[in-house]
Design goal:
The protein is of the alpha/beta class. It folds into two domains: about 10-340, Up-down Bundle (ABC transporter transmembrane region fold); about 350-400 and about 415-555, 3-Layer(aba) Sandwich (Rossmann fold), CATH 3.40.50. About 65% of the residues lie in helices and about 10% in strands. It has helices spanning about 10-20, 30-35, 40-70, 75-125, 130-135, 135-180, 180-190, 190-230, 230-235, 240-290, 295-340, 400-405, 430-435, 450-455, 465-475, 475-480, 500-515, 530-540, 540-545, 580-585, 585-600, and strands spanning about 360-365, 375-385, 390-395, 420, 425, 435-440, 520, 550, 565-570, 570-575. The strands form two sheets. The protein has a six-stranded mixed β-sheet with strand order 6-7-8-3-9-10, sandwiched between helices. Strands 2-1-4-5 form a four-stranded antiparallel β-sheet, with helices on one face. A hairpin with a 2-residue loop joins β9 (about 565-570) and β10 (about 570-575). α3 runs antiparallel to α4, α3 (about 40-70) packs parallel to α6 (about 135-180) and α3 (about 40-70) packs antiparallel against α11. The radius of gyration is 35 Å and the shape is elongated. The protein starts with 11 loop residues before the first helix and ends with a helix.
């Protein structure tokens, strides 16, 4: 079986980001599919919004008729009552239509927010270790909170206010022109000033809002790392310095927001000021026309009412510009993340191949991390037959964990360098490879949930009996039942309520429950003593029977029963053989074994 191997460049995401997000409105393509999907909802929402505006624009015409009748002396209680009833009916219809457009349009913005959030999370889960080495958790959290909220506001109230302002403004100007063209020109004369100021200030809004979002990312990441490392901070008596650093970041965040508010605070009052200048001009010139009799009192009242109606669009321009600048800035940040591509390209279901035997073959494997010059692994050759217990030992930095990461398919490798059941892993889907391996990493990851949930994470339908059986095998059952709520005990953020040894044994139990043909334990029992480690390895041997098991350990004694042990040094395999063979052939192995045995006897 040979399938094509696809692999992206290590900086593929960054290159895509630079090439596709430099145009001001290019990020709108991110939401285009959802605009098409909800096109009818949006259309009916805007129809309801425009009908509201039309009805609002008609009310001054009714008021004009009433005022003119009063001025001529032809008004009667019945006619005035009729005018009043008409306005009330229109107001009721406006209320109903407003409810409708809010449900349709603001509801769309919430649906868009949900879809984008789900898309973000789904995409983030496809990205590999290179991405997480470049991006912090705080930055990702900021995208999923502040930035998404900015997009939601822009596509909700931003779109509503812009369409409402444009239609209401143009229609009101049309009604005003119908009353008197010359007076209308006087009223709109200050508007070009507002357009210029809006364009001038909007560019500054974009840059300053971007700075605010970036500082929020930094603040979020600092808070997250502080809370997850609180025990270390307390142990080093760093509460005050840490709080001071957080305070400094908070002050910068406030200053960035104040700089943003200075632009926004200038734009909105200027809009209102220019609108009031228009009103002043109308009161002066329109009042003189009414006194001279060239304009009826009803037309003057209607004209002033229409002027108030275009005052809102003029004032809304600044607010809408701010919403759109915030939204487009955040959308660019979201687009940049969505353009990130994993270096490990998944070939999909068509490349699925069931790994059942657990045979591992490594041929001349050399691997270098993208950020390093020297290879982490050099010319590794290894054959692991199905059902073999393989031990790996070596000094820190020898390449043991790197080898485990490559076997677990966490980094790309050259073609024809690693084979599982005789198949090149570059021709297999990620699901095929990772679904065949139960991996216990050095850094145990636990969720803030119950012990049972953490053990059964990879097999949610596991029965309580299955969970208890693997917990017994990992020598953690007795300690679990001694807790207040047993297997239902919540262990806190990252297992903060547990010791290091307990966390590692939970991870062992989790891996055993998966019942997979290959088990890799990367120094997963370093937090327990040597005797306990040896006892656990013997205890889980029944689960490992018939499976390929690779155990990395700094201690040699627990690996004495391994079928084969390899010794690594500076990224190479320097020796391999059984425990007895290595004691005779490897001076490093024998020395380390003697030192560890002596230390154990002394304890």
């Amino acid at each position: 079986m040979k399938l094509g191997f696809k692999r992206g460049a290590a900086a593929g995401g960054k290159g895509a980001e630079n090439s596709k997000t430099d145009k001001p409105w290019s990020a709108v393509s991110v939401i285009t599919p959802y605009l098409r999907r909800y096109a009818l909802r949006i259309l009916f929402g805007f129809l309801a919004l425009i009908l509201v505006d039309v009805l609002q624009l008609w009310i001054p015409r009714i008021i004009k008729g009433a005022v003119d009748e009063l001025q001529r002396g032809t008004a009667t209680p019945a006619s005035l009552f009729q005018y009043g009833v008409t306005i009330v009916l229109i107001a009721l219809l406006i209320g109903l239509l407003r409810f409708l457009w809010r449900i349709l349009l603001l509801g769309f913005s919430r649906l868009l927010e949900r879809h984008l959030r789900n898309r973000l999370v789904s995409h983030i889960l496809t990205l590999d270790k290179f991405f997480y080495q470049r991006k912090t958790g705080g930055e990702i959290m900021a995208l999923a909170t502040n930035d998404l909220s900015a997009v939601q506001m822009a596509t909700g109230m931003g779109l509503v206010a812009s369409v409402d302002a444009i239609f209401m403004g143009l229609a009101a100007i049309g009604f005003m022109a119908y009353i008197d063209v010359q007076l209308t020109l006087i009223a709109i004369a200050p508007m070009p000033i507002l357009a210029f100021l809006t364009r001038f200030l909007s560019a500054r809004l974009h840059q300053r809002f971007k700075a605010v979002q970036e500082q929020f990312s930094t603040l979020t990441e600092f808070a997250r790392s502080t809370f997850t490392s609180v025990r270390l901070i307390k142990a080093y008596n760093q509460e005050r310095p840490q709080a001071d650093r957080f305070g400094g970041m908070g002050r910068k965040y406030v200053m960035d927001n104040l700089r943003l508010a200075s632009v926004y605070g200038t734009l909105f009052p200027l809009s209102g000021f220019i609108g009031n200048i228009s009103l002043l001009l109308i009161l002066f010139f329109g009042g003189r026309m009414t006194i001279n009799g060239t304009l009826t009192a009803g037309d003057f009242v209607a004209f002033v009412t229409y002027l108030f109606m275009i005052t809102w669009p003029m004032m809304a321009l600044g607010w809408v510009a701010d919403l759109f600048q915030r939204g487009i800035t955040s959308l660019h940040r979201i687009q940049a993340l969505l353009l990130e591509e994993p270096d490990l390209k998944d070939l999909g279901d068509e490349a699925f191949f069931p790994i059942t035997e657990g045979r591992i073959e490594i041929r001349d494997l050399t691997f270098t991390y993208p950020s390093q010059r020297e290879p982490a692994l050099r010319e590794i050759n290894l054959n692991v037959e199905p059902g073999t217990f393989l031990g790996i030992v070596g000094r820190t930095g020898a390449g043991k964990t790197t080898l485990c990461h490559l076997l677990a398919r966490l980094y790309p490798v050259p073609d024809e360098s690693i084979f599982l059941d005789g198949e090149d892993i570059n021709g297999l889907s990620l699901g095929s490879v990772r679904g065949a391996i139960a991996y216990v990493p050095q850094d145990v990851v636990l969720f803030s949930d119950t012990i049972a949930f953490n053990i059964a994470m990879g097999k949610p339908d596991a029965t309580p009996a299955e969970i208890e059986a693997v917990a017994r095998a990992a020598a953690i059952h007795d300690e679990i039942v001694a807790m207040s709520e047993g297997y239902h005990t919540r262990i806190g953020e990252r297992g903060v309520k547990l010791s290091g040894g307990q966390r590692q044994r939970l991870a062992i139990a989790r891996a055993l429950l998966l019942d997979r043909p290959i088990v890799i334990i990367d120094d997963g029992l370093s937090a327990v003593d040597m005797e306990t480690e040896h006892a656990i390895i013997q205890s889980i041997s029944s689960y490992l029977e018939g499976r390929t098991c690779i155990v990395v350990s700094h201690r040699i004694a627990p690996l004495a029963d391994a079928g084969e042990i390899v010794v690594m040094e500076q990224g190479r395999i320097v020796e391999k053989g059984s425990h007895e063979q290595l004691l005779r052939r490897s001076a490093f192995y024998a020395t380390i074994y003697q030192q560890q045995t002596r230390m154990s006897d002394e304890q």
